[in-house]
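Input/output pair, single chain:
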Amino acid sequence: MKKNTTVYFITALLALSPFLFNSCKTDTVSEPSPLGPSSIGVILGLTANPNVIVAGETNRQISTITAKLAKYDGIPLSGRTILFELLNSAGRRSSLGYLEGKVNMLSVVTDSSGLAQTQYYGPLKGDVRSNTDVYVRATVVWEGSQEIQDSIQLYIIRGD
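Output:
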C-alpha cells in the first residue's frame, strides 16, 4: 500500500509542476504603442445649455452648444475641426431652428482649451405642432477613415 501512495504522490506532483513553475513568473504591464489606434484615447464631449427650450411666438430661444475634445488624460486638443449638424429623431437633417449663420451644418475649430462652441436658435411656435426634440451631432475627422462623434438632444416645448 505504501508503494501505491508514493506513485500517486509522484504523479500528482508531476501533474502540478507546470503550474508551480509558471505561477512564479510575473509579467510587467506594457504601455500601448504611440503608433496604435489613436481614437481610443481621444474623448469628444458635447453639452447644451440649456437643453430644453420653448418655441415662442416671435422670439427664438438660444442654446449654447459646446464640444470639448481632449486626450484620455484630459489634455485638450486644439486646432481640430468639429462639424456640428442639426438632426431630427430619425437621424436626418432637421429644419427646426438653425445654428449660427442660419445653417443646419457648421464647422468650428477647437481653441487652446479644446473647446468649440456654436449657438442653436430654436424654432418659432408656428414651426412646431407639438413638443418635439432635435439633435446636435458633433463629428471630428480623425486619422485615415476614423471619426469621433457625439450627439446631444435638445427638447423643444411648444409655447402657449
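The chain has one domain: 39-158. The mean pLDDT is 85.
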